[in-house]
Amino acid sequence: MSNTLQKPAVLLLEDGTIHYGKAFGKIGTTTGEICFNTGMTGYQEVFTDPSYYGQIVIMNSVHVGNYGTKDTDVESDSVKIRGMIGRNLEEQYSRKQATESLDQYLIKNNIVCIEGVDTRALVTHVRTKGAMNCIISSEITDVEELKKELAKTPNMDGLELASVVSTTKPYTLGDPNSPVKIAVLDFGTKQHILTCMVERGAYVKVFPAKTPISELKAFAPNGYFISNGPGDPAAMDYAIITVKDVLKEKVPTFGICLGHQLIALANDIDTYKMHHGHRGLNHPVKNLLTGKCEVTTQNHGFGVDPESVKKAKNIEVTHVNLNDESIEGIRMKDQPAFSVQYHPESTPGPHDSRYLFDDFINLIKEHMN
Ligand SMILES: NC(=O)CC[C@H](N)C(=O)O
């Protein structure tokens, strides 16, 4: 925007860094873990991705909002980010199909944002100092008061958030007569992951995060999918137990992001909190099975520990990040289970990795009697 009618807003980081800007979206106060997304487009999909629950996102792209918002450009039923930080957040939009401006959309979804911030300096700071909590406010100006509010925010390390964003009731998608039946453990799934399976002919049943194995098995699935989601995977004891139970079934199983981390934890492999994580649309990943590079969509702040992977005899690393050599994919040698840290549904992002959904469906078909 920036116009003179905008209220001033302030951003305070846990380490005392302060940035002043203007209010955008809802007037108010919000706290969460600061992180940054380097994607140049796809802001609405980012804002509605449940894996961002509990986080305040800096958008590296200098202009956000230019193409407005639209009901169908979503990854869940509401905006999941806790807040947003931008350089220029635009109210005017120029896409014919758009129905609302970004500002109206964020107000409707109660999201407090700040714009006019030097996001290049801020991202450099977070890249150097690492992930930390922050507060945005367009109502509190006193720094001591802001610090007090910020101190109430829990640390992302050790936080279980998946059960908060998971579906409360099971639901189905796709053709009920399909021979391919996939049980989805929903820890905050992105809608397009489900679409990628349904488009390939699967009948999908999505279950709440805390569903026991007996209920999953009652659906008689011939594939299991472990979804993405927010929070610390190591804080999800209940889910690690269910994933262990799922793996005992020896049925084709695929995990994405949080699902990948849970498959690792179920194999007694550790996860760790990354310095500042990976979030964007152009992370290069090498597929070690084919030797090919994929440009991938990513959104994660935790990773699978390479040292404990080395010790796990039944695990093979299938994908590696070409920027920092972090683990991007694994498969189990003794059963048809595999997972990736990145987002092959790629909404938004390049479609290089969608072949993984074909691989999953083919694996299910191979294992059908
Ligand atoms: N996209 C995801 O599933 C994120 C997983 C996990 N919450 C992380 O930040 O690493």
Automatic annotation (TrEMBL):
State which Enzyme Commission number(s) the record gives: 6.3.5.5
CDD domains in UniProt: GATase1_CPSase (cd01744)
Q: Name one GO biological process term.
A: 'de novo' UMP biosynthetic process
- Residues annotated for L-glutamine binding in this entry: 51, 229, 231, 258, 261, 299, 301-302
Q: How does it assemble?
A: Composed of two chains; the small (or glutamine) chain promotes the hydrolysis of glutamine to ammonia, which is used by the large (or ammonia) chain to synthesize carbamoyl phosphate. Tetramer of heterodimers (alpha,beta)4.
What the entry lists under HAMAP family is as follows: CPSase_S_chain (MF_01209)
The similarity annotation says: Belongs to the CarA family.
| Name recorded for this polypeptide | Carbamoyl phosphate synthase small chain
- Gene name on record? carA
